[in-house]
Sequence to fold (153 residues):
Amino acid sequence: MKKIALMLASVGLVLSMAAQAKSTKDISEYPLGERGLFSERATIERINMAGKVCYEGDPCAAAVAAAPAAASGPRSGDEVVTAVCAACHSAGLMGAPVIGNKGQWGPRIAQGAATLHKHGIEGIRSMPPKGGCGTCSDDEIIAAVDVMIAKSK
Fold:
């Protein structure tokens, strides 16, 4: 008896949920034939490219936000050290001399600033050219190297 009552309650629940929907538009915005996972609409949505190309002069080009203005000049050595160099030189990653550690920087400083500038620009051992900063100019890297030298004397 309990099984029959449970079955009737389940059927009633399912029917009442279907009756609550005012129309099929409440269930999905797509018509009945286009709701399935394997419908032509769903297949096309899955295989479309993620992005769209918008050319100048197209209506979609007006909606593109203007890119933020580039910095108005070269960054200071401190800014480059904070943004780029500190990632490795503050913790000594991959053998990088820690900024302020006179024991690690002493032999390097003895090589001369020109050599350290060259290593900063061209890279050395585990350090990639310009410390991996593709947007840094040579002058910005030289300024950053000078800041690290000054903090490590």
Observations:
- Helices lie at 2-20, 40-47, 77-89, 102-110, 113-122, 138-152.
- The chain has a mean pLDDT of 79.
- Residues 2-20 form the longest helix (19 residues).
- The chain is about 50% helix and 0% strand.
